Amino acid sequence: MQGTVYKSTGSWYTVKDEDGVFQNCRIKGKFRLQGIRSTNPVAVGDRVRFSLETIGDETVGNIEEIEPRKNYIVRKSVNLSKQTHIIAANIDQVFLLVTLENPRTYPAFIDRFLATAEAYAIPCVLLFNKIDVTGDAMEAEVDRMYRLYSDIGYTCLRISARTGERVEEVRQLMEGKTSLFAGHSGVGKSTLVNTIEPGLELRTSEISEQHRQGQHTTTFAEMYDLSFGAQIIDTPGIKGFGLVDMEPGEIGDYFPEFFELKAQCKFNNCLHLDEPSCAIKDAVGEGRIPQSRYRSYVQMVTGEEDTYRQDPFQET
Ligand SMILES: Nc1nc2c(ncn2[C@@H]2O[C@H](COP(=O)(O)OP(=O)(O)OP(=O)(O)O)[C@@H](O)[C@H]2O)c(=O)[nH]1
Ligand SMILES: [Zn+2]
User: Which residues are annotated as a binding site for Zn(2+)?
Assistant: First the structure.
């Protein structure tokens, strides 16, 4: 039988089979997949093959095979430094909720998130939320960011999770797909999910990293079916993705507008920092690539962690 993993609790997996029936499954034997050293071989979103076995008056499924993953997101294991925990697999898209006030989402955070999504090969949609409250200055800034990210090629929407404005468009984008919602605490993830599907209670609330590590709890993702033919993966305690290890030389490839130009740099291993005849720096100088994007890129390449809370739009 074939099915999709909706939930995992460590050793047991809830798998929805082709007839829409949820089966309680476990793993038979050892799995080693795609060279990933992970603490969990099977993750939410995985498509698996399994066989049913009746033990006493109980029917359990034995997962025998995992189909190749389209993508997956990971988190470094807290306990075993070299191992990773696969949070979810086969994600069709991630919606990043952005607000410029309460809370403020900085471009550097957005850019890091987008680059990570590119590295994971997960399409990202930007949702500028709370448009019902923005004043004139805010509206202008949202417009500017909306244009900036649309120009790069990202789908952007201005929405209000509270009033429901343009939420129908979010729903349309979700149809037939498996989505994930991300963004800072307070941007409106729970509110949006509730507007999209009233009654569905997700655990999107962010648990502080410290708290989570202190407890040594493993948080598991869970997938939900929505009434209009869509799936949501709920990842408790994770506001974004886990971090991907990126080599400095590949980061530019995750900035689509950089990637497009890099063949025109003089050196084919150009990091677009101090090298001469760099097409990226030229484009930044001529305003074809936004300053903020370049600054985010430099922060990532030079490994200036945690500087993303500064506002790269602010001139110093
Ligand atoms: N005015 C306005 N307020 C909103 C909107 N969306 C959410 N809020 C409010 O913003 C606050 C935070 O919303 P939540 O949905 O809890 O945010 P969250 O992203 O789920 O936050 P965490 O659970 O901490 O990750 C709540 O008071 C919401 O009512 C909106 O579109 N407009
Ligand atoms: Zn260059």
Answer: 265, 270, 272, 278
